């Protein structure tokens, strides 16, 4: 076999391997029949929010979806829309504070509250700044398990998202009129719960 022919063979094999690898990695982004959708994908499985709320037969989890529609999470005594003043009066000073992607955050045992404004300290945060996102530990909310278990408890999600940017995050989203409940998974069990304004 000549050297030229051998290089051509290696090139063709390499080209075929890369086509197979890239073809497989993008199949999850374009598959419309699968339940999982990529964050990068424009194709997203939508379900009417009325169907979502009515699809759970478990009264405990139906109550959870109803609370989420009203900006509340089980186990967290503060809801979306509460002001800094209301939070401090009800919960006291947080264990720690800082800024996150949404704004100033107050961290309590088992959950954190994100506000609409950024600040360097709790004293700088406007008294009327409102909570726009709640992050909660699944044990606080009493919502643990694998994606299948959560779907059994809460019913069909509005959307399922597979974040294929490298950290294998899988998200079940339950949309209400004004709020979005996200159940975030790392590998399998629930990692955390998010309730936020749309």
Task: Describe the protein in words.
- This protein has 198 residues and is an alpha+beta fold.
- It folds into 2 domains: 31-71 and 142-198, no CATH class; 75-134, no CATH class.
- Helix content is 33%, strand content 25%.
- It is built from 6 helices and 9 strands, in the order H-E-H-H-H-E-E-E-E-H-H-E-E-E-E.
- It has helices at 3-30, 49-54, 59-69, 84-91, 138-141, 147-154, and strands at residues 37-38, 96-99, 104-108, 111-115, 131-136, 159-163, 169-175, 179-185, 190-197.
- A hairpin with a 3-residue loop joins strand 7 (169-175) and strand 8.
- The longest helix is centred in the first third of the chain and has 28 residues, at 3-30.
- It is globular and about 80 Å long.
What's the story with the biggest beta sheet?
Answer: 9 strands, mixed
Which outline best applies? Answer: globular
Radius of gyration, in Å, reads: 22 Å
Low-confidence blocks of residues: 15-59
What is the H/E string?
HEHHHEEEEHHEEEE
Mean pLDDT: 76
Give the neighbour order of strands across the main sheet.
Answer: 1-6-7-8-9-5-4-3-2
Gap between N and C termini, in Å?
Answer: 64 Å
Count up the domains.
2
DSSP summary, beta strand count: 9
Helicity level: 25-40%
Number of helices: 6
Question: Which structural class best describes the helix and strand composition?
Answer: alpha+beta
Q: In percent, how much strand structure appears in the residues?
A: 15-25%
